[in-house]
Amino acid sequence: MSAQIDIGRDSGGQSLFIDLEELLATRLLVQGNSGSGKSHLLRRLLEECAGLVQQVVIDPEGDFVTLADHFGHVVIDAAAYSPREIEALAGRVRQHRASVVLALEELEVEQQIRCAALFLTALFDAPREHWYPALVVVDEAQMFAPAAAGEMNDDTRRLTLSAMTNLMCRGRKRGLAGIVATQRLAKLAKNVAAEASNFLMGRTFLDIDMQRAADLLGMDRRQAERIRDLQRGQFLGLGPAISRRPVAVNVGAVQTGAKTAGQGLIPLPEAAGEEMESLLTDRLAEAASETAPRAPAPPPRPVVDLERALSAAPALREAPPMAPPSSPPVMEQEVSLPPAPDASPEADAPPGDLMDVVRELAASEGATFRPATALFRDFAVRCRQQGIASAHVDLAAFRRLFAFALAGVDRLDEALRQTVERMAGNVDDDVLAPYLALVIAAATGNSMPDEEELARLYGSASPSRVRRLLDHLERSGLIVVREEFGGGRSILLPEMVDLPAR
């Protein structure tokens, strides 16, 4: 199918068209300084070919999310998904030919780069039967394909350069037509820029960028001065999909706009100098002494069928958590615990006053940071002082009783307590307390303990040890940790079914 996209007017006032079929085969490079109208040009291009071809937009600033309002694009908020979910989403995008905007503005720069690289790589690696034609628009491409390493992690740089190079060099055979836009050609990796056959060059002022733009357009040094004099929304175009000779274009109007603040002038406030000073300094010391409130953690996303969302719905529904292949089905915190086996632990339960001693130890300051042997000696001494028989409790049994007391198992009702005790049967003593805290939080519907609380229960002040703890529990099949690009973390517990929510 052939289609002509009207992107604006040439210098003679005639409509200038881009051949969409040729564009899919030859790719496009857009350059322009901030304020030159580069994003406006991309928006015009996307609007004009909406409905004709699938569109995938990598949007680091949230400029293109408004396409969803008029053209039914699915907006993927990258901060809400884990890396594995981002890759799964990309696969479904290709499968269902959904036009999407990958919104990255809520992420830190390096997270944006890694997320986009994973998404693009998954698009590229889609099965052959899903190689449908699609425009892949990457705004601010100098971030994702930098000419120099800068402060970016080496692994991240290799990952993103590989993804962008695959898109521009090898994407055509997979139906992917890259459209990359950059503020500066000098900052864009040459092997990415060199693969484009179509060019739209906007205003730029630095000599090195003007010279590179002129070289791509086939202009001499004197003609390159024209690039400095271009107005906002004016571009010089060249390429098989645009024109065989350099042509000037004034980009046409668009139906949608960015959600950024308006750039026009607005009246200043009318407050007098003293009044404005009062507004700035009133209770300043009190405000400075206040601790900034922590943003609440996002609630766990329910398990839904995302395939139907990508194929039909105008807005993206939430993706299911990705469980390890060998793990059983995973449910969120409101799911509950498996039923207790027929046997009951009550016959072997320790006397109440012995448990009082254990609870006193667990409640003492810094108890979790003391060695288990020291705690056990203290326990034995207290039992002798109170005349409580404790000879039947060895060190291993004490460690488990201490973990139960730390987690607060005794505060649960009888049925739930027995179930929790049964679940703890095969868990190592040294990780039992934090695991029980996770189980109890999920069973009772409370929020999961944070890293600080897990560290206290684990007897460590090291965040890295807590991460290793969670990794160990996950490898053991006891939990599933779901990391999000936005920094959030959900801890899920397998096989927690059959009990009502509490």
Automatic annotation (TrEMBL):
Q: Does the keyword Glycoprotein apply?
A: no
The protein, known as: ATP-binding protein
Q: Which PANTHER family match?
A: HELICASE MJ1565-RELATED (PTHR42957:SF1)
Q: Which SMART domains match?
A: AAA
Region: Disordered, residue numbers: 317-353
GO MF entries: ATP binding
The major lineage groups are: Bacteria, Pseudomonadati, Pseudomonadota, Alphaproteobacteria, Sphingomonadales
Q: Does the keyword ATP-binding apply?
A: yes
